[in-house]
């Protein structure tokens, strides 16, 4: 029986051919020196389809979630990779074929999986309350054991929440350890309802608020400050009739304004105000904070049009990414102003994405940003590796928002970075002082390595290159799990 992945850009090439690997490797090869104060795990997740798409083709975002863990211990790094055992993965393993159709369209699924969670758990993996939460924004989280990566099951916070969508980008309050999260399309596919949750550091729900969005648009990421949560509402909308008819979940709306929903964290009911901005695209938020005069400042990469070519507008048109103006932007929202117009200025004028702040400053005024950059002025070896793939970034960068200084590293004309994660050098090190950890794909060689950068000298290149004997497909998001007692794979601590 033939079992072949399609020869499309979503399933081929060094970045997007499925990896489909589960297993573990002790003591990866290391070039350079892994800092001894890095003690814990870097965990991240990739959409990585186990089976070829049921309908013959699919988008990258619909792959099964495969979690990678790099465990750092005394300069050594162990590696483990394991799929999230979602309901859909277990069903398709039993059938030995994909049973799911169009992305986020359960009406196109095989009847045998009707009623099962549609989650791929493929977007982010977040440590919380002693577990890892594997997240996909259309479904509840999946909980995983942080040590074994065993899937513990769908997680509704011990029956404290109903079966609602749950963002892949929850925020952890750096002071209280609380987790703040939301779900959109929360009362059913294409509904305008948003639910916002807060849980204390022990996972006890302390707040649940429901509001309505002005349209059923995508809300992929959000921001949290001490007094507000801010929802960036993307003019890429869901329509139930279209979805019931087997169509795409999202469709770009070039005539719709971008919106920011500002919800008070203090009011009992859904006290939300929607600000407007010109039509634009956004995926992630760097951070947000409140000024002394009450204004909210929110930094995020943005583009002048739709980057997600796989969610085109109604007539099927999509824009070429290189024709769009992309930048890191600073938005100002004034809850006390009579105008609902958001103000914007440019912080960094080049295409950038996967922004990370120092996690100790979430919701607070920040000075340092880490991100991937696509600098079109740098060489690109198209003759060797073909056209630039989706999410190709050729620099990893540290941007000092105080001085405007950019400290960046270019690895080569056939190399692509994956999302960086910041790790503080110590609990009390200054903001932005620490390490950047990121996967780096060498597209010409078809190899992947994990690099460790010192944030104070990014342009010098990695202090350690941790070599994988296999190629990892492009992932989405990851995080550092601090563990001063980490012992690595299969090693039992003397205190156990
Ligand atoms: Fe994301």
Q: Distance between the terminal alpha carbons, to the nearest Å?
A: 49 Å
Q: Approximately how much helix is present in the residues? A: under 10%
Strand coverage percent:
35-45%
Rg result: 21 Å
Task: Give a quick account of the main beta sheet: strands, pairing sense, barrel closure.
Answer: 6 strands, antiparallel
Poorly predicted regions: 490-496
Summarize this entry quickly.
With 496 residues, the protein is mainly beta. 4% of the residues lie in helices and 38% in strands.
Write structural notes for this entry.
This protein has 496 residues and is mainly beta. It has helices at 13-16, 87-95, 240-244, 382-385, and strands at residues 23-25, 29-32, 40-47, 65-73, 76-83, 124-128, 131-135, 142-145, 151-154, 171-172, 179-184, 193-199, 205-212, 217-218, 223-224, 228-238, 250-252, 258-264, 272-277, 287-290, 296-303, 326-333, 343-348, 352-356, 368-373, 395-400, 406-410, 415-417, 421-424, 434-442, 447-454, 464-467, 477-482. The strands form seven sheets. Strands 2, 28, 29, 30, 31 and 32 form a six-stranded antiparallel sheet that branches. Strands 14, 15, 16, 17, 18 and 19 form a six-stranded antiparallel sheet that branches. A five-stranded antiparallel sheet has the order 1-5-4-3-33, with no helix packed on it. Strand 18 (258-264) and strand 19 form a beta hairpin. The protein starts with 12 loop residues before the first helix and ends in a 14-residue tail after the last strand. Mean pLDDT is 95; it is low at 490-496. Residues 123, 168-169, 220-221, 284, 476-477 line the site of fe (ii) ion.
């Amino acid at each position: 029986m033939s079992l072949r992945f399609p020869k499309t850009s979503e399933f081929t090439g060094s970045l997007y051919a499925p990896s489909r690997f589960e297993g573990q490797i002790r003591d990866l090869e290391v070039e350079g020196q892994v800092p001894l104060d890095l003690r814990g795990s870097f965990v991240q997740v990739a959409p990585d389809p186990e089976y070829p798409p049921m309908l013959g083709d699919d988008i990258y975002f619909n792959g099964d979630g495969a979690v990678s863990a790099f465990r750092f211990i005394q300069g050594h790094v162990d590696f483990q990779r394991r799929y999230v055992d979602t309901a859909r993965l277990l069903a398709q393993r039993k059938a030995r074929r994909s049973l799911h159709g169009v992305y986020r369209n359960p009406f196109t699924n095989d009847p045998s999986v009707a009623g099962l969670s549609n989650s791929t758990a493929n977007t982010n993996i977040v440590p919380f309350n002693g577990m890892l939460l594997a997240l996909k924004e259309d479904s509840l989280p999946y909980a995983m054991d942080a040590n074994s990566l065993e899937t513990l099951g769908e997680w509704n916070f011990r029956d404290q929440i109903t079966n609602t969508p749950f963002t892949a980008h929850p925020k952890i309050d750096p002071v209280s350890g609380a987790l703040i999260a939301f779900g959109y399309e929360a009362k059913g596919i294409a509904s305008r309802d948003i639910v916002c949750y807060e849980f204390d550091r022990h996972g006890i729900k302390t707040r649940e608020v429901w509001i309505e969005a002005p349209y059923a648009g995508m809300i992929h990421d959000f921001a949290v400050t001490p007094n507000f949560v801010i929802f960036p509402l993307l003019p890429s909308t869901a329509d139930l009739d279209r979805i019931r008819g087997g169509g795409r979940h999202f469709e770009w709306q070039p005539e719709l304004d971008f919106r920011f929903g500002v919800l008070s964290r203090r009011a009992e009911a859904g006290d939300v105000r929607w600000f407007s901005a010109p039509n634009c695209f956004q995926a992630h938020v760097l951070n947000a904070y409140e000024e002394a005069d009450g204004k909210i400042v929110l930094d995020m990469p943005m583009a002048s049009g739709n980057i997600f070519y796989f969610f085109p507008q109604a007539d099927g048109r999509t824009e070429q990414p290189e024709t769009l103006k992309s930048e890191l932007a600073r938005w100002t929202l004034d809850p006390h102003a009579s105008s609902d117009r958001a103000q914007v200025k440019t912080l960094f004028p080049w295409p950038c994405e996967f922004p990370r702040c120092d996690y100790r400053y979430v919701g607070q005024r920040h000075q340092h940003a880490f991100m991937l950059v696509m600098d079109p002025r740098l060489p690109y070896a198209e003759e060797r590796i073909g056209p630039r793939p989706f999410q190709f970034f050729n620099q990893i960068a540290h941007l000092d928002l105080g001085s405007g200084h950019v400290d960046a590293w270019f690895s080569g004309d056939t190399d692509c970075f994956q999302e960086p994660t910041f790790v503080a050098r110590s609990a009390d090190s200054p903001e932005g002082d620490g390490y950047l950890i990121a996967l780096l794909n060498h597209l010409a060689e078809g190899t992947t390595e994990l690099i460790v950068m010192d944030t104070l000298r990014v342009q010098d290149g990695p202090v350690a290159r941790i070599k994988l004997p296999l190629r990892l497909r492009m992932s989405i998001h990851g995080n550092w799990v601090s563990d001063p007692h980490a012992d690595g794979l299969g090693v039992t601590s003397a205190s156990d």
